[in-house]
């Protein structure tokens, strides 16, 4: 049911506008996969959503709705010129203010600038002219990790300690794919892969399921189910292959 659906109850029409759409529900599910000890903001990759909702057109449409509602902030992870990840706006604000609770430049960025940008990047001239940022404020935002230099004239929206998060994400993702590639036929049972990764620190830091949805959603690996029928039981076995 979408946020625009109407339910009839006792002959009264009630507009339900607080229920998340499918994409927002998937975003919040991915957040639950991160361990309680996770020390970075709950970043969700768009390709993770592809593995859950299975409808890219719907996802892109609903992400645009969430963006217009200021519920999400899109991000670019790495050096690509397109958004590849996102974070719920409330999580972005809470995480940042927890690190910089008294910084006036940060508060101005979160309360005034960010809700007006609604993109994963921003031009330098806009920050200086439209939002009247002083050079020292711009420098502060860069030093705090909220702006990442894209080129001489523009910035990516980022978050504090993004470099450390990206490093751990890349290391964990690479480790899982290498496990599969080293197998004789480059395939492995999903359960066996999870067991192999259970005690690996670089996987535990973000969580095995978090990585799995990312890799499957990007189609770097293919998964298929093998159904084995017995007289009284049916077993569904998921096999992952590169």
Structure description:
Helices cover 48% and strands 20% of the residues. It is of the alpha+beta class. It has helices at 22-33, 46-53, 56-68, 89-99, 104-117, 124-130, 135-143, 162-181, 190-197, 201-204, 208-217, and strands at residues 6-9, 12-15, 44-45, 72-75, 85-88, 121-123, 147-151, 154-157, 187-189, 222-229, 234-241. A hairpin with a 2-residue loop joins β1 and β2 (12-15).
Summarize this entry quickly.
The chain has 242 residues and is an alpha+beta fold. 48% of the residues lie in helices and 20% in strands. The protein is elongated, with a radius of gyration of 21 Å.
**Integer average pLDDT:** 85
Structural class: alpha+beta
As a percent range, the share of strand residues is 15-25%
Number of strands: 11
Largest sheet, spatial ordering of strands: 3-5-4
Query: Rough shape?
Result: elongated
- Roughly how many Å apart are the termini? 35 Å
Helical region count? Answer: 11
Q: Biggest sheet, in brief?
A: 3 strands, antiparallel
Q: Residue share in helices? A: 40-55%
- Please give the radius of gyration in angstroms: 21 Å
Unreliable runs, pLDDT <50, ≥5 residues? 1-16, 230-235
